[in-house]
């Protein structure tokens, strides 16, 4: 049971870290770069990114972060491992914020872009961009901060577990 609880915590930490890195990269590089482009480029680029991101690697990281963190929490309920449970639960709570913001803010806005006409047929790309960009960026910053916090908490749980076992 000890190896499985440590392995699940390690997997939770890695997948949460990869997800945090994705959202952070969008916050400090991708969206600021797209902000410097014209309306057509931003809309088309975000459509292509939203289509491309739905793949197995993303699913393993994004979904795995939740599943592995839940598993790690469950496996740390025993008295000998309970000392790290508060760090795991706090990481889980922050990751639930990420999921909530994704579901309530970012995915609906992605769907707005996906449902719009072909980029060359949209009559007011500036309005489409305005409807999308500012709110999506704010939501993503929340996701970046929350997932980075979750990653830090899970990493600390690994350190604390190592001290308990060592």
General description of the model:
α1 packs across α3, α1 runs antiparallel to α5 and α4 runs antiparallel to α5. 84% of the residues lie in helices and 0% in strands. The model has no long low-confidence stretch (mean pLDDT 94). The longest helix has 41 residues. The chain has 5 helices and no strands. It is mainly α and 166 residues long. The chain has one domain.
SSE sequence, one letter per element: HHHHH
Number of helices: 5
Query: Major β-sheet, in short?
Result: none
**Any idea what the shape is?**
elongated
- Spans with pLDDT under 50 lasting ≥5 residues? none
Q: What Rg, in angstroms, do the CA atoms define?
A: 19 Å
Helical coverage, percent range: over 70%
Alpha-carbon distance between the termini?
16 Å
Q: Find the structural class using helix and strand composition.
A: mainly alpha
Beta-strand share of residues: under 5%
């Amino acid at each position: 049971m000890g190896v499985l609880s440590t392995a699940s915590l390690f997997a939770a930490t890695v997948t949460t870290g990869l997800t945090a890195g994705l959202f952070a990269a969008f916050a400090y590089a991708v969206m600021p770069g797209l902000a410097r482009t014209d309306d057509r480029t931003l809309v088309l680029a975000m459509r292509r990114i939203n289509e491309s991101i739905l793949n197995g690697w993303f699913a393993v990281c994004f979904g795995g972060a939740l599943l592995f963190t839940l598993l790690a929490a469950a496996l740390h309920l025993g008295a000998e491992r309970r000392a790290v449970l508060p760090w795991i639960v706090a990481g889980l709570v922050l990751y639930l914020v990420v999921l909530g913001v994704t579901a309530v803010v970012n995915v609906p806005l992605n769907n707005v872009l996906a449902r719009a006409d072909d980029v060359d047929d949209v009559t007011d790309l500036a309005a489409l961009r305005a409807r999308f960009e500012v709110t999506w960026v704010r939501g993503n910053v929340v996701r970046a901060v929350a997932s980075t916090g979750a990653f830090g908490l899970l990493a600390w749980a690994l350190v604390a577990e190592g001290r308990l076992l060592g």
